[in-house]
Every structure is written in C-alpha cells, then in structure tokens.
Amino acid sequence: MARGKIQIKRIENSTNRQVTYSKRRNGLFKKAHELTVLCDAKVSIIMCSSTGKVHEYISPSTTTKHLLDEYQKTLRIDLWSSHYEEMQEKLRKLKEVNRNLRKEIKHRLGQSLNELRLEELPALQQDIDNCLSVVRERKFRVLSNQIETCKKKVRNVEEINKNLQNGFNINAKEEDPHFGLVDNGGHYDSVIGFQSGGAGIFALRLQPN
User: Fold this and answer.
1) pTM, entire model
2) Which 3 state secondary structure label does DSSP give 204?
3) What are the strands of the beta sheet with 179-182, ordered from one edge?
C-alpha cells in the first residue's frame, strides 16, 4: 500500500516537527555518505535545527574549511574578507575603549593631568569627590557594624557575669545564711575574699539583729 504524499509546508506541532527533522536529517546524511563512497566526492552538509542545535556531515579525510577554500578558489571569490573587516572594526573599537579607560584610571590617580584642558578638571574633581563619598559611606557602615557587634558582645558578657554573681549569691546563702555578696570597694570589717578568674568576689558575714 503506497503512502500518501505529505504536503510540503511548515509542521505546526513542535514535537512532530522535531521528529521529522531528525528522520530526514539522518536520511540526507546517509545519501551524502553513499555519494561520497560511490563517486569519491567530497560532501559537506551543515544543518541548524529550530532548537538551535547544529548537525554536520563531512566526507572522510577532509574538513568543511578545506571544502570552502576549494569553493572560493574555484569561483574566485573571497568569503572571509567581509567577515575579517568586521572583526578588525570590532577590534579597533575595543582598543579605543581600552585606551580611554586607561587614561581615566591615570587621571583619577593624579597622573598625566597635563593633557587635560581646564574645562575637564572640574568634572574630574567631581568624579573623585563622588568616589570618596562612596568610600567614606562604606567605611562608616563597616565601623558601625563592628561597634554594634562589640556592644552585643559586651552586653552578653555583662549578662553572663550578672547570672554568675546571682548564682553564687544564692549558693552562698543556701550554705550559710549569714553570708552575702558585697561590692569590691565597700568598707566592711569582716570580709572574706574569693578569687574567680582575676576578679575579686567577697563574702561578708552579716550580723544578726
């Protein structure tokens, strides 16, 4: 039973379109290989799918560039001249941008200022002032963060010290209710000293009423 002819138009369904591309690509590459073997021909095929994938068939013992060079030689045309000129123009623009950036860096470092006109100096000064403002703002922000961090550490240490003193006071009273904590610097007659770290903690015997 013969297959019906497929109408040659764009396949709207993306899945069917990709399947058809894959099948016909393989068939085309197979025919190119047969032509290469049977006729000793040099064949190069480059295909780009709608998804952006590139597929290539090239005859053994040759390259696409070699075939293109033979094509140019046979037809006496130059395929690369326009492309080369475009690349040269891009390179020239990139060099110009690089040269201007180097000049700007030198000027901001206070170098090669003699090549600037009087009208250009105020703009340079303004740019440097703006940069300094950004640097100062960043410095103050970092310092503020460090100060806030130090304050938090101090508060944590004070809280820990307070808890230790409260715990020591409770334990001392439980062991002997006649003892209590006093500050280092108070004037008391009967004071017993305890060393905790390098700090002096003192217990005072309380006189009964």
Assistant:
1) 0.38
2) strand
3) 179-182, 199-205, 191-196
* H helices present in the chain, as ranges: 14-39, 64-75, 81-108, 121-175
Tokens encoding 35: 């032509």
Q: How far is CA 44 from each of CA 35, 38, 64, rounded to the nearest angstrom?
A: 11, 16, 6
Long-range CB contact pairs, 127-131, < 8 A, 24+:
none
Instruction: Evaluate whether 102 touches 112 at the Cβ level (below 8 Å).
Output: no
Residues of the chain scoring pLDDT < 50: 181-184, 186-199, 201-203
Give 99-137 pLDDT, tens digit per residue.
989 988 888 888 888 888 888 888 888 888 888 898 999
Structural tokens at position 181: 């904590």
**Do the beta carbons of residue 24 and residue 32 sit within 8 Å?**
no
DSSP state of 176: -
Q: Which among 171, 184, 168, 177 has a CA at the least distance from the CA of 206?
A: 177
In eight-state DSSP terms, residue 3 is P
